[in-house]
Design brief:
The complex is a heterodimer of chains A (634) and B (165).
Chain A: H1 6-18, H2 23-30, H3 35-39, E1 42-43, E2 51-52, H4 69-103, H5 115-124, H6 134-147, H7 157-160, H8 165-173, H9 181-191, H10 200-229, E3 235-239, E4 249-255, H11 258-270, H12 272-277, E5 283-288, H13 289-299, E6 303-305, E7 319-324, H14 333-340, E8 343-346, E9 357-358, H15 366-383, E10 396-400, H16 404-412, H17 420-429, E11 434-438, H18 450-461, E12 464-469, H19 470-478, H20 484-490, H21 493-505, E13 515-519, H22 524-538, E14 547-551, H23 557-568, E15 572-575, H24 585-599, E16 602-605, H25 609-626
Parallel strand pairs in A: 4-5, 4-7, 5-6, 7-8, 8-9, 11-12, 11-14, 12-13, 14-15, 15-16
Antiparallel strand pairs in A: 1-2, 3-10
Helix pairs in contact in A: 4-6, 4-9, 4-10, 4-23, 5-6, 5-10, 9-10, 10-23, 11-13, 11-15, 18-25
Chain B: E1 4-7, H1 17-25, H2 32-37, E2 46-51, E3 54-59, H3 67-71, E4 78-79, E5 85-86, H4 99-103, E6 110-111, E7 118-119, H5 133-137, E8 143-146, H6 148-164
Antiparallel strand pairs in B: 1-8, 2-3, 4-5, 6-7
Classes of the chains: A alpha/beta (634), B alpha+beta (165).
């Protein structure tokens, strides 16, 4: 099975009929993949290489420079973390620049839409907010955000203000609190250069520091997106390819950064008449990947598909344009678009794809560019009239928008004075055994969504509260797991009772969804905020909470960085694929065991989803035991 | 005619994927991650070397007049019905006298991890489609598995295409 998603399977049959190549075909063509790479024992960091170390002791045990397998594996891993950190922090900086330009009057399309969040973030970061006008405060917050990137004096304030005091002390004691986000990325590139850091343990500590910088970048990204575009509130919509409409101008918003897509959402609202003039019933925006999550969370834009199935919406024959910003956008979409007539539009100067239409976007020209892009889509709509539409009939209801603010507001309906108390009471009583955050991507090596679905059912049945972000949340959206109905079907009795009580207190007439969608992959910081609030309320550290994380189908270097900071936050963290580290028994042992003594969290590598759920449940029970709470067996 | 592993030397990029796949196919776990995590040290029976500016793999040719069989003192080395030359499953057990290793003109015989037996290509590595692990692993098609006459026919066709085209 290539995908658990019936819409994806249907479109793959169509791809087969049309002879359109997809990610699954290219993966097959790559097999078998290089074993040295799979084990992490290939080094290409200097021109004396590439070097490989024999995993079986019957070939070279060192690279040309003398680097051992331990050094190579550690260097390769921390370089991946640095790349992930660079991606998230680039996203965050982009938002900071938009906010700064608005404050300077240069980007009128980017006003502060959530003044309360602006003031809350400013106050949290120690800025004086009393009586400060929004424009001035926005300028100060943007400047402070940008200051987090260069090398500063001492640990980053944005890190310190968003983790528990205990965590800051633990990380500070290990010397891994970063002093600048870009600085630590740069330092990791330096340290992994030929002849710098050869000590695998020291390299991994550097990687942890870089991962914390990634966390900080993610947090800035979430904070600023909320300030600029609004903190997500509950939205109800639908997901999967069935959200495409043959009689509409269909535009997919793909990538990660909401800076452009937010403006497209606004401008699309004004261009309905142009679409109607072209014979369409209207403009239908849909989401792909995390740009899709951003506009889902804030505007209820329906997500069409995610991650590895990103090529398939075009095969419906009705997708008129796919607009990409950056990250996880496969260059292959251009080839598919040539078969389907879809206009692929790239928008970022640093993220072009040969064969795509490039309409460079800036904060200053956002509205005009958004209009041009929609205009291209309308043209494509005209051109496709008379061609067949093959929209799979699959779509699922989605309830999303669960920012921490939304969750706390929902809980406040049970206890206005102390919103977290009901959650804590239910964890203590065992109605909620613990919390699991599902994060990450799809990976072509795993049947799409299958690990997410199996693990959610196993854990929910055992009363584990489920949170999700990124393409993981997308998987749950397409399969109907973000619904009250899924709660009734899959949740254990304790979890069902709690979600029902919260839902009914909020006038929903039923439970909250089985899985709470917290946002895009950058928004994993929201889950940390919730854990930190819980830990602070209990007077413990995040490393003591019965909170775990899972990346059951992870793919990107960003996911490697996120997984590492989840461990650094003290969370037992599951990986559903084997990362390229097995070439070093030392590194493997540290990641899956030794690191626990240093950080509290550790990696659980398990490719079988049912077995993985059991291991996470046991990790939750270990934490409950540590807090003196009643435990259960699997 | 039995199929042979035949090499297109021009296509070898020296990635050693064949070596890794051969070793894994001869591990207890029969998969890379399992063998590495299990601490196994399986030996590869195909070898990639640099010869001047050229790179190339080499493995046992399973010669018809196999010097290793003639030289084997114990009678361990023998030819199976399918033509495979191997010292596994013979009349006697290999005693590691290294006669086979000394007489092999290709250097295709090596010692095992403990130095207590000779190991060589035994074709005990084929997948369900009957393709040897080294051939399956080769990303460039340098290692092929087929009838020898088909190999030479393709070579002739290539030559003629270049000459006559």
């Amino acid at each position: 099975m290539k995908s658990a998603d019936p819409a994806v399977r249907e479109m793959l049959e169509e791809a087969g009929r049309q002879g359109v190549e997809t990610v699954w075909d290219r993966y097959e063509a790559q097999l078998p993949q290089c074993g040295f790479g799979e084990l992490g024992i290939c080094c290409r960091n200097c021109m004396q290489g590439p070097c490989r170390v024999s995993p079986f002791g019957d070939g070279p045990s060192r690279g040309v420079c003398g680097a051992t397998a331990d050094t190579m594996v550690a260097r390769n891993l921390v370089r991946a973390i640095a790349a992930g950190c660079a991606a998230h922090s680039g996203h965050a900086k982009h938002l900071a620049h938009a906010l700064k330009k608005w404050a300077k009057g240069e980007a009128p399309a980017y006003p502060v839409r959530d003044e309360a969040k602006l003031r809350a973030v400013a106050a949290r970061q120690g800025l004086d907010t009393d009586g400060v006008p929004v424009v001035d405060l926005a300028a100060r917050v943007a400047s402070l955000a940008l200051e987090q990137f260069a090398e500063g004096e001492g640990p980053l304030p944005w890190t310190g203000a968003t983790v528990t005091a205990g965590r800051a002390k633990t990380l500070g004691g290990l010397g891994v609190l970063p002093t600048g986000i870009d600085h630590v990325v740069s330092e990791m590139m330096h340290r992994t250069h030929l002849g710098v850091d050869a000590d695998p343990v020291n390299l991994l500590l550097g990687g942890v520091s870089c991962a914390i910088a990634d966390y900080t970048g993610c947090h800035i990204g979430t904070d600023l997106a909320d300030i600029l575009f609004g903190t997500p509130r509950p939205v109800v919509t639908e997901a999967n390819l069935g959200v495409l409409k043959a009689d509409h101008v269909n535009i997919a918003l793909h990538g990660h950064n909401p800076v452009l897509s937010e403006v497209i959402v606004q401008v699309a609202g004004d261009m309905g008449e142009a679409a109607v003039a072209a014979g369409a019933a209207g403009i239908n925006l849909v989401g792909v990947c995390c740009t899709g999550n951003e506009v889902l969370m804030r505007h209820g834009v329906p997500p069409a598909t995610h991650s590895i199935s990103q090529e398939l919406p075009m095969l419906t024959g009705v997708l008129d344009a796919m607009v990409a910003d950056y990250q996880c956008v496969y260059p292959s979409i251009v080839g598919v678009a040539q078969c389907t007539g879809t206009r692929i539009v790239t928008t970022m100067g640093m993220a072009k794809i040969p064969g795509a239409t490039h309409l460079e976007f800036t904060e200053e020209n956002a509205v005009a560019r958004a209009g041009e892009i929609i205009g291209l889509a309308i043209e494509a709509f005209r051109a496709r009239q008379g061609r067949p539409a093959r929209i799979p009939p699959h779509r699922a209801k989605v309830v999303a928008g669960f920012s921490v603010e939304t969750i706390v507001a929902a809980l406040a309906k049970l206890d206005a004075a102390d919103p977290l108390q009901p959650l804590i009471d239910n964890i203590v009583a065992g109605n909620i055994q613990g919390v699991c955050l599902f994060a990450g991507c799809n990976n072509v090596k795993v049947p799409q969504d299958e690990n997410y679905l199996v693990m959610a059912r196993e854990l929910a049945a055992r009363d584990v509260l489920l949170l999700a972000t990124g393409c993981g949340a997308g998987a749950y959206a397409r399969h109907g797991y973000l619904t009250p109905e899924a709660t009734l079907e899959h949740a254990g009795p304790g979890l069902k009772a709690v979600l029902t009580a919260v839902g009914e207190a909020n006038g929903l007439g039923g439970p909250l969804p089985l899985v709470l969608h917290m946002g895009s992959c950058v928004d994993n910081s929201r889950a940390v905020d919730l854990a930190v609030a819980l830990a602070d309320r209990l007077g413990v550290d995040t490393a003591q909470l019965p909170v775990v994380a899972s990346a059951p189908e992870f793919k990107t270097e960003k996911a490697v960085a996120i997984g590492t900071w989840a461990v650094a936050c003290g969370l037992p963290t599951h990986l559903g694929l084997v990362p390229p580290v097995l070439g070093s028994a030392l590194v493997t042992g540290l990641l899956t065991g030794g690191v626990k003594d240093l950080l509290g969290g550790w990696f659980i590598v398990e490719t079988d989803p049912a077995a993985a759920a059991a291991k996470l449940f046991e990790a939750i029970q270990e934490r409950r035991r540590g807090l003196g709470l009643a435990t259960r067996s699997w | 005619m039995a199929k042979q592993v035949l090499i297109l030397f021009d296509r070898c990029v020296g990635c050693r994927s064949c070596q890794l796949a051969c070793a894994v196919a001869h591990s207890e776990a029969r998969n890379l991650f399992g063998a590495v995590v299990g601490g196994e040290k399986p030996r590869s029976r195909v070898f990639v070397h640099q010869a001047g500016a050229r790179k190339g793999p080499l493995n046992c040719r399973h010669c018809q007049d196999a010097p290793c069989i003639d030289a084997c003192i114990t009678g361990a080395m023998h030819r199976r019905e399918d033509g495979t030359v191997t010292n596994v499953g013979g009349a006697q057990t290999c005693t590691a006298c290294w006669m086979c290793l000394m007489v092999c003109p290709y250097g295709a015989v090596v010692g095992d991890e403990a130095g207590t037996a000779a190991v060589k290509c035994d074709r005990e590595c084929k997948n369900t489609a009957g393709v040897p692990a080294c051939v399956k692993a080769c990303p460039t098609g340098a290692l092929t598995y087929g009838e020898v006459d088909d190999f030479s026919a393709r070579r002739r066709e290539d030559v003629l295409r270049r000459v006559l085209a």
